[in-house]
């Protein structure tokens, strides 16, 4: 193998390794950030609504919502989301985070 080919191969290999590491770091950072936001929403909701009948009645609908990645929205879940947002208007969580929090109760 000639030296130019060997050098080109090594350069491409180094670039590919660097790109893979960078995308792994970006993916990991995004996943950890999303998990942190979900954990915050979960702890806020679970501590405040542990005994709330409207929220507890929405657990099955929340499970369907999470399993379907947001496609299935039951009436109990809709009522619980409205209720949670009325009781805790400062809570900054999307529907998926709230559904996951309801499931953790």
Automatic annotation (TrEMBL):
Pfam family membership, one: DUF2388
Keywords from the UniProt entry: ATP-binding, Helicase, Hydrolase, Nucleotide-binding, Signal
MF (Gene Ontology): helicase activity
Stored InterPro entries: CHP02448
Top-level taxon of the source organism: Bacteria
Cleavable signal peptide: 1-21
Record protein name field: Holliday junction resolvasome, helicase subunit
Originating species: Pseudomonas marincola
